[in-house]
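Team,

Forwarding the record for the chain on the shared tracking sheet. I've put the sequence and predicted structure together so nobody has to dig through attachments.
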Amino acid sequence: MAVQVIMPRMGQSMEEGRIVRWLHAPGDPVVRGEPLVEIETDKANVELDAAASGYLSAILVAEDAIALVGATIALIDEQGVSDAASSFAPPEASTRPPKPPRI
């Protein structure tokens, strides 16, 4: 059974976060509590730890994309990469293209 990795609210005013980089690739083993992804908020870059042990079975939000708080950004599965990702589709409104670079 896949465990959803959710974009957390890291501050009272946080509405969305940008995926800076994934620290694991699909198929990689992950251990609960180890850093999984680096997220940029409006105030800081923060590493989000894995909420479960298993395998990173799917990345649903690519690097440099924006995800709303509460959106599923990845899946962790005890069995490894599976078809769970193909049956799971995040809501259209949960992600959007990256913001233009700041000048």
